[in-house]
Design a protein that fits this description.
Layout lengths: L2 H12 L6 H9 L22 E6 L5 H17 L2 E6 L4 H13 L4 E4 L7 H7 L5 E4 L9 E4 L2 H20 L5 E6 L5 H18 L5 E5 L6 H13 L7 E5 L2 H13 L6 E6 L6 H4 L4 E6 L6 H12 L7 E3 L3 E3 L4 H4 L6
Helix pairs in contact: 1-6, 4-5, 6-7, 8-9
Length: 340
Amino acid sequence: MTISRIVRPLAVVLSVLGMASTNVIAQDAGITPPPEVAQFIDIEPGSGEGLTIGFTQLGLGVPFTEALQKGMVAAAETAGVNLVTCDSKFDAAAALDCARQFRTQNVDGLVTFQADAAAAANICAEGPQVPVIAIDIEQQPCQTAFVGAANTYAGQIVGYAIGQYFKENFDCQYDAFVSLESLAVGVVNDMRMGGMRDGFAQVCGEVQNLRVIDTGAGGQADAAQRQMTDTLTALPGAQKIIVVGINEDVVTGALAAARSQNRTENLYLGVQNFDPGNCQIWTAPHFIASAAYFPEKYAQLILPNLIKAVKGETIAKQILVPHEVVTKANMMQLYPETNC
């Protein structure tokens, strides 16, 4: 089946697949964004002049964090902030070392993006006692605010789109539902992946033949590939396998596993986050939908609020991303530079 044939039923179900698609889903399914969803705002020049901000990165070298880093560097330059980045490389021990380094560097505030929620208390204790904004993964007990995905909502809108596709094309019949997760990130994983199943269930009923795969801290492609290879081997006759992932990396891994067995046609994909350069997902035979996270714009939610907190102002405790549903039909509207 071609990509155009995949997209067309969604266009019928959702009426439009442009910027308004999220609103259509909300109206049809009763799925609404939480009140904590914020809007991206321009950085005020010089607003953080003289401040030093420590930034613990999840792990550079993957598209999401590279887009986030680029946005943070540009925003810090505009705001006049000295941004000091420490790469935790998806490792809690490395994140702990970053916190200890920042304690000696007299930072005025922290931005923490590290994958192991269970390690957060130790990391908080070893870091400087300054305002902290956590990205995407809770960093209790020290976080002043959380900036990241509206996880349940982001999951629901993708799951609902998958359910609508399967209802229209297969009367909700499928062979397996594979959920590529990252259990280490705790509640974030539960909300995002549970939201996927909830959105799907609103259309097709309770998920059947569910297979949950833990792909490691942060969701990693190599772990997904290894375990998806085993899963496909255990499903030799399956023709319609729904695959949903906590991020695009794990779905990339699933596709690699499917290619090794000549079974990419068997995978029907629902993704979290949209990387406009990840063409192997967006051109896959059965890519259905993704939720855009806009990591390149995260800084517009993070820096203005952290600067306020450093200056003693009160900020919201939850600052969530305004997600959009992405399909082959509307990706060029959201990301004109997409070249897939």
